[in-house]
Write a structure and sequence with these properties.
2 domains, Rossmann fold, 17 strands, alpha/beta, 17 helices, binds adenosine-5'-diphosphate
Amino acid sequence: MEIIHVAAECYPVAKAGGLGDVVGSLPKYQAELGHVAKVVMPMYRTKFLYTHQWELVHEGSQYLGSHWFHYSVIKEKTNKLGFDLYLIDINGLLDREKIYGYDDDTERFIAFQIAFCDWISRWSHLPDVIHCHDHHTGLIPFMMKHCYAFRFKLANIPSVFTVHNGQYQGWIGWDKYYYIPGYDSWNWGLLDWNNTINPMASAVKCAWKVTTVSHSYLDELKHSANGLENLFEYEKGKSIGVLNGIDTEVWDPQTDSFLIKNYDKELVDKGKKKNKKEICGQFGLDEDKPLIAFIGRLVGEKAADLLPEAISQSIYQHHGKANFLVLGSGEPYLEEQLDHMKHQFNGYFNSYIGYSEPLSHMIYAGSDFLLMPSRVEPCGLNQMYALRYGTVPMVRSVGGLKDTIRDFGDKEGFGIRFDQPSVGDITYSVGRALDLYNNKQDLYQWMRGYMMTIDHSWDSSAQQYIDLYQSLKN
Ligand code: ADP
């Protein structure tokens, strides 16, 4: 089959979170299964662009409202990512260093989607499926089916939409309706949710199939979806959950070039110890104490607002027996608070405010526990990386965390689970972590060895997507 993935992120080209990891790995595994998998994304000005070789494959022009824009499509020459990578460039809109966060993000991503549809509609053959990821590509299923400029060519190509994060929906005021290429006006309702153009809602309505990145998240969206609950309930017949996998080549403690010391299941103790020593040295922490880390966006979804209080309480209540390290960026007030705390809890807590791919790998390898108290977690990849690196996940029972982590108190459990995103539950779990680390050494050792053998690769999920696409073929 020929599959086109279209997304705003793709590791290692441009990544802000889990979406980038997924779009950078799922196509690779689909290609390994013998399919032609392609990724199309905006051409940001990231390092990857300047360090790779490209060929021009198409140039075209289209309207964004009354603005006539020119676009070009380039293809990475070497195919070393394991799939074909195409970047769409639109001067003045996509030529930025960052992925998101600009005042004109609406214009940027609508223009990208128009250029994408325009380019595909000029192909001499058609792909078997177009797989859109999250709201930045959520207008594509509508455009393919209903916009005059594209529907003749694209309406019969199956579209799949994956919800990686239902909290962000890409809302656009109806005052910008003219950006969307012409369509029969009675179809406006397919774009609308609560008097706003809602790309996420539109994709859920118009895509042939909708997937979420874990089974539990699909259930949760029917009760909590930032206003789209009824829609997810209504469209449940065409929706399924497919658990994300991880790229086991990128995330492999045996070969990971970011680590000070590589290790496998047999050498987990020695390997982790060396990496921990390095991390603790770097952050002024005590390598003889258990190290509990948090990696992620400092936002409410991740319950990062609980970290300052939960970490202080844990240090006081457990008499400084554990050390804490936070890597993240997000809400400015939290960044400031966590930055300030490192002076207050010098030797017990430290933080790196910002984004660092190399440091994240070192922390997965050098920590003993990884804390994820999320309020919402569609799938979560961090816990799978932690497992692979022999680090015990401490997770709130929600979404994909619930689907991937079993508590060590249950049969063959290998993690710590708690029910509420609260300071009390986190502090209590820190107590359980200390107990495990100090008093149940056998269980702790077994868990670390066992965790590293759990298969979270894309092998089975990549095939599930293929089966889903096949079911859409006439
Ligand atoms: P999200 O909701 O942010 O997409 P996921 O768990 O699905 O959460 O994926 C998060 C990904 O982003 C992981 O690869 C994690 O290591 C990475 N990540 C998050 N914050 C940072 C950071 N500050 N520095 C480096 N990597 C980060």
